[in-house]
Structures are given as C-alpha cells and as structure tokens.
Amino acid sequence: MEYNTAICRGIPTSLIENGLRLENNHSPIDEALMRRQHDQYTDALKKCGMKVIQLPADETLPDCVFTEDAAVVVGKKAVLTNQGHPARRAEAKEMRKALEQAGVEVFDMTEEPDSHVDGGDVLFTGSEIFIGDSKRSNKAGAEFLRKSFGIPVHQIKVDEGLHLKSNCSMLGLNKIIISNDKDGKSMARGIIAAAENSYTFVFVPDIKASNVVSFNKTVFIPAGYPKSREIIEDNIAKDIEIVELGNTELSKVDGCLTCCSVLINV
Ligand SMILES: NC(=O)NCCC[C@H](N)C(=O)O
Ligand SMILES: [Zn+2]
C-alpha cells in the first residue's frame, strides 16, 4: 500500500521498568541500544521519503512509543482507539493532535467505554479488516471500526500472543505473511474462513519475522532471521527493497516493527 506520512513517538525511560510485558518475558533492556534501534527505524522511514510526525515521549505513559495501538487509519479516516489496557488509554490525547495535524477525519472510540481496540490487533488488507479477538480488543471495538470505516471487519481468535499482528502482517497486495506455528496456522484458518477476498499466505519459521512493515516499494523486516528473510525475498517483487532493522530491545516489551508507527496517505 502507498503511504507518505508516519506518526511515531519518543521512548520514555519509564518503559524500561514499567513497560507492559507478557508474563513469560523478563529480559533486561539495553537502553542505549533500544534508542539507537528506534532512531534507525525513524531514519529509515525518512530515507524512504516518508514525512514523520514525531510526538514527544511522556514519562507517565511507559508504552507510548507503540503508536500503532492508539489509532487505526483507513484512507482519510482514523479511529482514535480506546486501548485494551487502562494504563495506555491516555496515549490518545497526543495521538488525536497528530491525526488532526495529518488532516484525517477522526472517529473517537475513547467516548465508548465498553469498546476496546489496540491497533496491533488490526490487519487492514486494503479492502477489509481482520481484528484480533484478544486480551486487548473486543467485539464492540470491532463493531466501532466497521461503523466508522464502512468496510467488513472480522474477528480472529488470538490465543498465546499479545496481538493478531504478533503473528502476521501484510507483505504486499492481498499477501499475508504469517508465522508457521500453531497460532499462525490457526489464525490463517480463521482468516480464510472469514475473508471476503482471497489472500496468499507466506509462512515464515520465525514468529517475530512475521511482523513486517510493507509500504510503497519497501519492506522493513526485523534483523536476524535469515531463513525467514529468504522466504520473504522469494515472495516479493524484484523491485521491492528489503530493509533489515534491529528490534531486539523493544521486542523485550512485546513490541514489533509495525507497532512503532501509524502509516497514513494524505
Ligand atoms: N502494536 C503492538 O504490537 N504493540 C506492542 C505493545 C507492547 C506494549 N508493551 C503493550 O503490552 O501494550
Ligand atoms: Zn506489534
């Protein structure tokens, strides 16, 4: 898909101690490396010609760098989400300003206390949305997206991971990259059963490599997964450039590559 603008946010130091983590994840974060990796990410977006709207870090919001969760954008419309975890809901305030600055029409889910969506659960294929039925996103949230965007929205069960896109993402037009494990396979079955369009699935052996940022003629993939990289190379057009980005540190707080930006075409 084509995009020209990205909303990113600085990393508060509070992420290191107070960032939300899945229970099985306790490795300590290397702060300097984390900041370097995030700078490389925003630099790579700029190098690809994207305008980056950079929101300030907020120490009271440890997970605010993961901007993807605070908004869902489809064309010129955006839903400001009411995130699943209460500690993250106040991220909406700065996100609203950024969306308004970008010039999209904002639909405010934060006014509906029973609707919840994390953007990390939302896989927008260009014509329809698959949304994780997860700890963070619920049916009322899915319904809010359907009403706001006027496109089909299908809930897909998320078992182990945090979000739907912890195990999959768009690799290209109607092409979904997805992890070749039990969770990825069950998500693929759910997507096939619910889909209105047909999709090609590209299965990769590394769960983390199933989350890529594909836009214009570029695909960002996490560094360090050579087997998955080969499969990706074999399944994209020859004129698409692969950019490997280190994501070892934010990954310790369950962040993947899509999490750190909201992509918009204005
Ligand atoms: N879109 C995403 O995958 N976001 C990752 C959020 C990680 C953060 N530590 C959280 O648990 O909310
Ligand atoms: Zn993510």
From TrEMBL:
This protein's UniProt keywords:
Hydrolase
What range does the record give for the signal peptide? none
User: Which InterPro entries does the protein's record reference?
Assistant: DDAH-like
Which family would the database say this protein is a member of? Belongs to the DDAH family.
- Recorded protein name is Oidioi.mRNA.OKI2018_I69.PAR.g10577.t1.cds
Supply the source organism for this entry.
Oikopleura dioica
